[in-house]
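Fig. S4 source data, part A: sequence.
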Amino acid sequence: MIDYLTHPKFLNYDPSIPPSSQGGGGGMGTKTYRVLEALRDVYPRTQGICDASEITADTVLIEPLRFTLPTEGYGDRDLESVNELIHGLRNHKSRKILYCSELTLMRMPHVLREQVVESCDLVTANCKYQANLFKYVNVHTNHTLCDPVPDVFLSRLNFRERKRRLVATGNVSWQKNAPQVVEVFKRLKGAVERVYVGSAALWYTASEEEGPQRLQEELYANTDRVVHEATTEQIAREFQDARFGFWCAFHDTFATAAQEMMMSGMPVVAAKHGLASEMPAWSASGVRAQVDAVKRLAGETDESLEQQSERISKWARENVSYAAFQGQLKEVLRAVW
């Protein structure tokens, strides 16, 4: 049996309804839902918890954001303070695995990070890129545990039936490098159909600042079709209907959207990001090179693109699927037990 300890704001996310119907979206709600689903495939009694006093399993995965986000206003009871949580973890007999998301561990104050890491038996990273970043704050790990991507993203179409379409997605913000998307989309007018899935109001902490709204207006003006928000199944259909993906965010350390695109068998043009070197992506630096990469892809034969699609989807199944997550978790469990 395994417990998954995380922040309460993520535990009630429902990927089958639009983010705006539940106060916002974001990657952590999606990740939490998927992790619990993947765990319950193997450990049916898995539960999502928020406090050390709730641990009933002999192993617990721990989300670092539980230590950094305020907990006031969630649920009908007061949650443990950070000090109480750390004390409870240290004194619990379970094996404790710090299952890291994005840059949370690096953003913690030094003393808090040391306390959190020392209260756990093992630290995992989503990918090699994240593990290498952790070294800068003296956290070392050789253990990988990805953010799992569900099979709903697996291709349902013969690649030749897909539209000559380029899809990008995400919250419209500087963190997702929206200005770069705008410039690439501008230069691809008429070359491929340009689709953007997302808006400036996707995250729970949706910004009403003028900057993101201006970015959104410019992005939408240079997009052939906009999908303001979507459920998981709707996003999967968008990816499965398109031939190409574009990802250039610098906020991401794991880039779930790019992994989802690859699961659907979509060749992805990506910025030269630390993560891109781990994926079968078309890496290119700068607007001109990224535009050229999309045009080169669009000019390839159906046969060549089909072969790429099959190879890319196979990579995703082996590295970021539920089955891949479950296999990685077995290795992590061997290390702590």
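Fig. S4 source data, part B ends here. The CA atoms of residues 129 and 275 lie 6 Å apart.
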